[in-house]
Design a protein that fits this description.
The complex is a heterodimer of chains A (117) and B (113). Chain A is an all-beta fold and 117 residues long. Chain A has strands spanning 4-7, 10-13, 19-25, 32-38, 44-51, 57-58, 67-73, 76-81, 90-97, 106-108, 112-116. In chain A, the strands form two sheets. In chain A, strands 2, 4, 5, 6, 9, 10 and 11 form a seven-stranded mixed sheet that branches. In chain A, strands 1-3-8-7 form a four-stranded antiparallel sheet, with no helix packed on it. Chain B is mainly beta and 113 residues long. Classes of the chains: A mainly beta (117), B mainly beta (113).
């Protein structure tokens, strides 16, 4: 199956610093990637849609200046959590749908556990 | 407002028996439904999907049933195995959504040996 790789798997950072999370599609090109956030024992909440070559689309309530998304190539999207605070501690997951048809399963990265201290 | 709901946070089943996980949705625009399996600290793994033009899709031990009039879908796993123990998420999308997925809150399945 298709592989989506996310790095790092976990990161601990100090409050006020920025953290970059990478999401790569290893064996296919993805013009679109999605970033999700999961709080403990809750569902995956879509944060934003990353579009290659254009601006990301953010879901309501997600601060675009805090969660910077860059989709620089057809295989890489990055999420940067700027000026991180303890409330940003969460599990962040990216996904990329393979293929051009509208209904297709998305492949997920392994997730990044962010802890802000 | 949760558009995709999984009302059972947990389910325990004996090995070899059938596991039935349920999911309800409210948005009638959804036309594609998926089930994902997730282990702690890992990303979800795709299991099976179904288009709204069908009412059943089967893949090995996994079968998904869709009842559009009731806005309900279910995942049947038979026979259940201890390795099936994980959190199962149902997800939905619609054709105009650029393949964004709306997830339910998940059901923790425990298969007892």
């Amino acid at each position: 199956g298709a592989v989506v790789s996310q790095h790092p798997s976990w990161v601990i950072c100090k409050s006020g610093t920025s953290v970059k999370i990478e999401c790569r599609s290893l064996d296919f090109q993805a013009t679109t990637m999605f970033w999700y956030r999961q709080f403990p024992k809750q569902s995956l909440m879509l944060m934003a849609t990353s579009n290659e070559g254009s601006k990301a689309t953010y879901e309501q309530g997600v601060e675009k200046d805090k969660f910077l998304i860059n989709h620089a190539s057809l295989t890489l999207s990055t999420l940067t959590v700027t000026s991180a605070h303890p409330e940003d501690s969460s599990f962040y997951i990216c996904s990329a749908p393979k293929g051009q048809i509208m209904n297709t399963e998305a492949f997920f990265g392994q997730g990044t556990r962010l802890t802000v201290v | 407002d949760q558009q995709v709901k999984q009302n059972s946070p947990s389910l325990s089943v004996q090995e070899g028996r059938i596991s039935i996980l349920n999911c309800d949705y409210t948005n009638s625009m959804f036309d594609y439904f998926l089930w994902y399996k997730k282990y702690p600290a890992e990303g979800p793994t795709f299991l099976i999907s179904i288009s709204s033009i069908k009412d059943k899709n089967e893949d090995g031990r996994f079968t998904v049933f869709l009842n559009k009039s009731a806005k309900h879908l279910s995942l049947h796993i038979v026979p259940s195995q201890p390795g099936d123990s994980a959190v199962y998420f149902c997800a939905a999308s619609f054709s105009g959504s650029a393949r964004q997925l709306t997830f339910g809150s998940g059901t923790q399945l425990t298969v007892l040996p």
